[in-house]
């Protein structure tokens, strides 16, 4: 149950950051530091989500 909640929370964060990234890209260049940082943060969240999902299946 704990992992299910964690996955849902990560999923919500991913969706939020994804929307933020799309908004940033509407106004800034892809090479802008804010866009790069947001994209990197999104990558980290996705990796964390995938790792959590994989680990929850092992249990």
The secondary-structure class comes to mainly alpha
Task: Tell me the distance between the termini.
Answer: 11 Å
Number of domains: 1
Helix and strand succession?
A: HH
Q: How many helical elements?
A: 2
Radius of gyration computed on alpha carbons: 14 Å
Assign an overall shape. elongated
Beta-strand share of residues: under 5%
What is the element layout, followed by pairings?
Elements: H1 2-27, H2 33-58
Helix pairs in contact: 1-2
What this model shows, in words?
The chain is mainly alpha-helical. The chain has one domain. It has helices at residues 2-27, 33-58. Helix 1 runs antiparallel to helix 2 (33-58). The longest helix is centred in the N-terminal third of the chain and has 26 residues, at 2-27. The mean pLDDT is 91. It holds the Pfam family SpoOE-like. InterPro entries: HLH_DNA-bd_sf (IPR036638), Spo0E-like (IPR018540), Spo0E-like_sf (IPR037208). This is Aspartyl-phosphate phosphatase Spo0E family protein.
Structure in a nutshell:
The chain is mostly helical. The chain has one domain.
Keywords:
59 residues; mainly alpha; 88% helix
